[in-house]
Design goal:
Layout lengths: L1 H13 L2 H27 L11 H18 L3 H8 L6 H7 L34 H7 L3 E2 L4 E5 L5 H8 L5 E3 L15 H7 L2 E2 L4 E5 L9 H8 L4 E6 L2 H15 L6 H5 E3 L4 E2 L4 H4 L3 H8 L8 E5 H6 L1 H11 L11 E4 L4 E4 L24 H22 L7
Parallel strand pairs: 2-5, 2-6, 3-5, 6-9
Antiparallel strand pairs: 1-4, 7-8, 10-11
Length: 397
Amino acid sequence: MEYSLFCHHFYALSISPVKKKLGLLFIMLLLWVYMLYSCVGYCATMPPSLVVDNSNNRAKETDFLGKYAEAESGRPDLVMSKLLSRPQSSWTDVESDYDEPTVRRAPRDFSKDEVDADRAEEWDDGRRVSPLSSFSNGSGSKKLPQAIIIGVKKGGTRALLEFLRVHPDIRAVGAEPHFFDRNYDNGLDWYRDLMPKTLEGQITMEKTPSYFVTREAPARIYAMSRDTKLIVVVRDPVTRAISDYTQTLSKKPDIPTFESLTFKNRTTGLIDTSWSAIQIGIYAKHLDNWLQFFPMSQILFVSGERLISDPAGELGRVQDFLGLKRIITDKHFYFNQTKGFPCLKKAEGSSKPHCLGKTKGRTHPNIDPEVVQRLRDFYRPFNMKFYQMTGHNFGWD
C-alpha cells in the first residue's frame, strides 16, 4: 500500500506543470547553445569590416625585401619598386606587359566587372557549414595561406576549391580576397584575418584567379613566404576565351560580338591581344613572370579538362602536391549529365549531393568556326612553349 502511494505521488510530480515548463526551458537552452556555436563558426569565416593598422608589419616586410634585394640582385631599388609598388588593375598590368605599340585598353576590356563573378557562385542548395565544422572554426588560429590557387579565370578554379574543401586537412576562405592584386596596401594582418581558423597540421588556402595575370603578384607572394605552393588550373585557351566572353555576355547583353572583339582587323586576321579574354590564355607569357620568383617544383598545373573527365585523378595529384593523404577519391563524385561536369556526392558540411550553381555550365553562343580556327592558329606556338616550360602536354590543338 505504501509502495503504491509512493508511486502515485512520484508519477504526479513527474507530470506536474512545473516539471513540464522546466523541461521545455532546458530544451530551449540546448537549442540556443547549438545555434550559438553554429553562428560563431560561420561568422568566423566572414571577412572583417575594419582594416587593421599594419604599419609595424609593413616595416618588417620592407626590411626583409631590402635584404633580399641586396643579396639576390645587387639592385635593391629595382626589386623594391617591383615588390612594393601600388596595386594596379590586373588586366591593365597584363596589357601593359605587351610590346604592341597600339594597345587598345579600356574600350576593349569588358571583363573588369567580371573578375569577381566566381566569388558569388553558390552551390545549388545554398549549403552552409555544418555545426561540427562551425564548432571547429571557433578553435585553432588564423594563418597566412600555405597554398594559393592563382589562376586561371574560367579554368575551373571554383570547382577545384570546392572539391578540395572536402579534405579534412584543408581550410579555405570562400570569397576571393584579391589581396596580392587589389588590396595589398591593407597589409598582411588584414589578409591573415580573412582566413579561416586552422588546427595544427591543416593547410590554409585561398583562390584568386587574377593573380596569375597580375605582374606584381609573384614578388608579393614571395615576400609573404618563398615556400608558398601555387596551383594553376589551365584550360584550352580558345574554349576558355569563349567561356569568358559568355560570362560577360550573360551580364552585359549589349557588348559586341565575340568575333568583333577577337580581331583588330577581321580581313587580315590580326588577333587583338589587348582584349583580356585573349591575353589570359597566353599562359607561357604569364608563367615567365612567376618563374622569376618560384621554381617549377612549387607550381602545380591542373588540367581543367581532366578536372571534368577525371576529377579524382586530378584531385589525387593536388593532394600529393600539398603533401596530404589521398582522401578525396572516386567515391566523392558523380557526373551531372545536365550540367556536363562532375558534382560532389557529399560536400563539406552536408550529407546531400552538391553541384556548382546555375551560372556554371552556361550554354555558349554560336561562334564562327573560322574565328575559332584562327584563334587556335594564334595560340598554337604559345601552347607549344607552355608545354616545354611545364613538361606537360595538355592536348590542346
